[in-house]
Amino acid sequence: MSRGELILTIKNLKEKYESEWKSVEDAFMATIEEIRKFVTEKTKKGEKFTKEDAETILNLVRNSPQASRFLLRYIGSVGSDKKHVIMNLLSNENFSKLLDALESEKFEEIKLLAERIVQTVYNVGYATLTTWLAILRPDLFIPLWGYEKENGTVPQSFLRKFDDTKRFIRWWNLEVDELFEFLEILKKIANSVGINNLFELAFYLNKYQERTHKDIATRRFWLIAPGEGAEYWNTCVKREIICVGWRNAIEKYGKRIFELDYDEFKNVMKNEFGYGNFHELWKFLKEISTGDIIFAKKGMKEIIGIGIVESGPAIDLELGDYPIYRKVKWINKNLKLESPKQFRGTVTELTYEEIGRSIELKNLVDNIIRKIISRDSKDELDKETKRRIESLIDYKKQIILYGPPGTGKTWLAQNYIKLKTNDDKKFYDFVTFHPSYSYEEFIEGLKPIPVDSGLKFVVEDGIFKRIALRAMCEALKSTGNDLARIANELLVSLNKIEQGNLNEYGRYIEKKRELWNRILSLSKEEIRELFKNSSEFYLIIDEINRGDIPRIFGELITLLEADKRLGEENQIIVTLLYSKEPFGVPPNLYIIGTMNTADRSIALIDIALRRRFGFIELMPSYKVLINELGIDNVKSEKQAIEKIKNWDENDLNVVKKLAVKVLYAINEKIKEVYDRDHQIGHSYFLKLKKCEDENKAIKTLRYIWFHEIIPLLQEYFYDSPKKLKDVLGNKFVMVDEDKNTYEFKQMEEISDEEFLDALKELAQRGEQSE
Question: Whose CA is closest to 126, among 134, 137, 138, 118?
């Protein structure tokens, strides 16, 4: 791919991950400055470096932000004594000369000294060399490391893809002149997109992912036990994860365990914790990759589930003794198959040949892989729509997506949230409002629970209160003080209640009281600081306009406003109706509602709701239809409509084009005889996307038309037969204007040829009426 495409890729990475870089930049670069100052001053004094000096440098690295620490992975080489490597490198006479050459930017001398350092200092290669070049001059050099299994700072898949970089794919074997040519290319590319700190470029390149599908030849298969006797299986299914143990090591090292090289990892796990099976965790952390297939096992002999890995490793101590997890898309959750490999441990690899010993298992795997390879690329959010949502929800904290039925409101809400939360269900929830939905279900209400003497009533928290508490506790548990302990204990208690533990209510209430007592003792400024950089939580309220808003939200409708949330300028904390507990809405909780304008116009919804929510309109998108059905590739709605208008009779012989043109024609007629809020959305016709030939397309279009479009129009015009005829024409509905009645032709009464002719007439009538 060309230089232009390479620059565009960097731009896109910057756009997507710049906020992440900004969140660590100051602290990380402060570490770089501290290391640079320490090394420069000592070198200029002519002092030799000791192991204690090396330890000082490594401690600075360890205390840098975890999210950017990988940039310094090779500061002391990997697979050897880091302190010894750092001490020898910094004490080498060529290193002190390198400092002077870098200061005066004598590039030929820099190259010569770099070559001498690599040749004379044991265990210093290009990765360690460029790391120190970047520390000393981040405006000129990028730290280089990366290999097939791990992106590092220059992913192999990235280098392989572009014309400018593919010849440097084995950069560690280059001659020094070629190495510096490579470094110069990366610098120029960074500068062209406004990046002057090459650590920033390295941060973005680490996020690069080549969009490819794995086939059987490159996909790996893993047999994993979700706890002894699969005790964590229900949690794995609910959270869509696979989790493993080794909690003691995680409690002490946290995410630092992810960054150790193999020798360090082995030493820590085996000698410090006595884990003889450390190699199994190493496989889970380092060898499993996105797209691999997981077989969940129970005991030694039974496979109970199959899924596809969707993320790298992460930690959640709320998971108990099995706190390390990866996101998994579970395809089969209720299997009872004999495992082709009997294995007593937690993690082991299966070969495709081993899977082939079980015909049933092999067929399942083959079907899964076939679907993955053949499935269409995952729908992405339109950038402009995403930008509109982000800007409005940041300002208002809650928005409503509104429009006619079938315009993708719920799909957009769900996919936006999945994108923002990496589809971790811990961070979002979903509820649908309806006319009988109440405050007691949404906020809190009385619930009878059985006790020895009969029944007693407890106050049960509703979905909104629970997710608000989760958002609060998630922010507070990283504060590192007593609030963190309370937040963690409250989360544990809440999890038990949600799992049906009725004996937990007393402790749950006690922990809530303890939490609120601490919060009420803090100033607004102190509370605001607690929520700084906290994880975002989301609640989707589908069909929000169908609920009785004042009755559902009660006194909390005011608390939703951005300036009245916890820690904000006009913070409000109220006492709740049933529990008499204090309550405020945390600033890291966002609400996305959806609203069907065919049910109720936006002008008629509750005024309190209108004032507190931002609104984004979603109308039928012909651009989406044309692009998704593979008809053409258009960039805007205006361009899509121009295409539709220019289609002639021959174009309408293509079923997918005919469907799009008919939708456009009847929507134009609906706007004329009714209003724009009752148009028909494009999503009904997206079912045509899977049709591989015209016969299947006709069959699918008939289903859509008779079972979805006509019933919807019948609902719109139930009391206006003439308007119904104006929209549908006389080939699908017969109207008796004298009696003000109508009858629809049934699908069985119309042949395929008659059906297509009738649709063409509708489409062309639309042209005549323009």
Answer: 118
